[in-house]
Design goal:
138 residues, mainly alpha
Length: 138
């Protein structure tokens, strides 16, 4: 009997890259969204717990805001599809062929940034009601 192994890589980049940062932040936002504020009201020190939770949520949302702004900046710059404005003979030239990898890489970078930004924005949107509720109960 032979052993088989299946492995996959999720995301773009090596360990320690922005993908890891985005994943850690996404996990933090998801974990905070799972907290039931009513559960914090049981027992002693409820005001301190709710205040600590609200502060943690606000801190995570600030971190998400900073990261979303950084991702948004990756979408700026020259339009990689402006190559469509070039004449067909220019795209067919050797110089045009050399640009294929550069254009493909730029589009891939923009796509990855867009996906990460969408994930973080969606998670932040789900956490905002928790922040408002915690602030009301302080």
């Amino acid at each position: 009997m032979s052993e088989r192994s299946l492995s996959s890589t999720v995301g773009v980049g090596a360990p320690g890259t922005s993908h890891d940062v985005d994943e850690a932040l996404s996990t933090r936002l998801r974990d905070l969204a799972l907290v039931e504020i009513d559960a914090l009201l049981a027992g002693d020190g409820t005001q301190e717990l709710i205040a600590a939770f609200a502060d943690d949520v606000a801190d995570a949302l600030r971190e998400a805001r900073t990261r979303i702004a950084a991702l948004r900046s990756q979408l700026g710059g020259a339009d990689p599809l402006s190559v469509l404005e070039a004449a067909p003979h220019q795209r067919a030239s050797d110089a045009g062929a050399a640009g294929v990898d550069r254009i493909r890489a730029r589009l891939a970078t923009q796509a990855e940034a867009s996906r990460a930004m969408a994930r973080l924005t969606d998670l932040a949107a789900g956490l905002i009601p928790k922040l408002f509720e915690a602030d009301r109960r302080r």
